[in-house]
Amino acid sequence: MKTLLGSYERYTGIKGEPLSTGGGTYVHYLDRGVAFGCMTPDVDNHMHGDDEFMVIDTLLMSAKIFADAMIKICNDLD
Asked: What pTM does this model have?
């Protein structure tokens, strides 16, 4: 969690806050996994609603956050 939040903070400049929801995701099938997404407080993208959308700049930033976190996590496995 610290690694994921650190990557989020690095690219957004916003203090990362873990959130828990009751939604069903793939993570329930993993022994030590967490679902991770990159929402920003300034955009209500109607998550999983009929009119859900994503701002392209936020989507690109999310890709950078995911890549950064994956590199850090993989390097910690060595």
From this structure: 0.81
